[in-house]
Amino acid sequence: MSQRPVSARASSTASGGRRPRADARRNLDALVEAAKAVFARSGVDAPAKEITDLAGVGVGTLYRHFPRRATLVAAVLQHEIDACADAGPALLAGHDPVVALERWVHRYTEFVGTKRGLAEAMHSGDPAYDGLHAYFLERLEPTLAAMLTSAAAVGGVREDISARDVLHAVALLCQAVPGEDDFAYNQRLVTVFIDGLRTPPRP
Which residue, 119, 123, 158, 166, is most buried by CB atoms nearer than 10 A? Predict the structure, then answer.
């Protein structure tokens, strides 16, 4: 099993070894949510004050929890990976398997398509990202595999594509294209890809 990346909560307690107080946990959660929104809007190099203003905390609170930008980026990514993985069973429980799969793929598209500068950051060699790619596959691949199996069982999607194929294909479709409204364009291409997943009509 891959090593779990350092979580947002773990990063805040690493120095003291104690669980954070309730107010500290609230600040931590607010910072991660704010960073998620700011990274989507302004990229991972956005000013710290833009994040803290949205979170409603001071810049000192940000640096107390996340002394380095890379640890904040990693915390946001782990939070997003977990949320995306948890969405799979919830969608399957409430929708037809094919509809659930389509909604999950668009949910995943939002995850990978709204993090400007993320690819460059993750390939920077910073140790804060060690284990993150393995964690990504460990959490998302089984979730998507279960959804593909359920959709294939009702004859809704083809059986010759793997969960990893879909994860990688959508990530490639979410690369920035000069002159296009990135996310809207990504979603349109992914919609075409989803149509291609459907079981072809019998001759």
Answer: 166
- In the structure, what pLDDT confidence band is assigned to residue 14 with cuts at 50, 70 and 90? very low
CATH number for the domain harbouring residue 29: 1.10.357.10
Confidence (pTM): 0.78
Total structural domains within the chain: 1
Instruction: Give CB contacts under 8 A, 24+ apart, made by 92-96.
Output: 92/146, 92/147, 92/150, 96/154, 96/156
List the beta bridge partners of residue 157.
Answer: 198
Residue 132 structural domain: 8-197
Angle, helices 163-173/182-197, rounded to nearest 10 degrees? 150
Q: Is residue 203 part of a domain?
A: no
For residue 88, give both structure tokens: 């799979």
| Residue 2, in any domain of the structure | no
- CA neighbours within 13 Å on the CB side: how many for 189? 19
pLDDT 10s digits, 18-61: 555 778 788 899 999 999 999 888 888 889 999 999 999 999 99
Q: Are residues 157 and 149 in contact, defined by beta-carbon separation less than 8 angstroms?
A: no
Q: Please state, in angstroms and rounded to a whole number, the distance separating the CA atoms of residues 77 and 55.
A: 17
- Decide if 146 is inside a domain: yes
